[in-house]
Amino acid sequence: MAAVVGALALLGIGIAIGASTAPTMAATPDPAAAAYPELTFPQTVEDVISAEILRDSGIDAASTRYIATVSDFRIYLAQPDDGDGRCIVTFTSTDNRPWSAGCASGAQDGAAIFGIDDTLTVAIGDPDDSDVTGIPIRLSPSVTAYVAQ
What we know:
The protein has a four-stranded antiparallel beta sheet, with no helix packed on it. A four-stranded antiparallel beta sheet has the order 5-6-8-7, with no helix packed on it. 17% of the residues lie in helices and 31% in strands. The protein is α+β, with helices and mostly antiparallel strands and 149 residues long. It contains two helices and eight strands.
């Protein structure tokens, strides 16, 4: 019995020593990563948009992430060159041509809403129901498409 109590005491001392030597600095979360988790994943081949296509757009080509294809549009989430804001880039699926790109700068409250064409609207964040019409389709944690009926 004494051996069991002694072993438990040593185990407790070991845990206390380990806890006292463990780093006490907490990791500081990246605000952009918390807001847009899609941007924290490594860029894959599917995510890449040619830097030549994005040359004068103000969009950081290294930040583009493919989200989904909806109504013949490939939708990408991205960030501006200066990293301050959020962007949507779309291509037509059938002929792989750039269609539209837009950014909302800064860290505004609420959603950034982008009209793609007459039948498709894309929002980053969660807009008020009165701000956008159509059937909502959640594409990712940060992006929702709204398809007109």
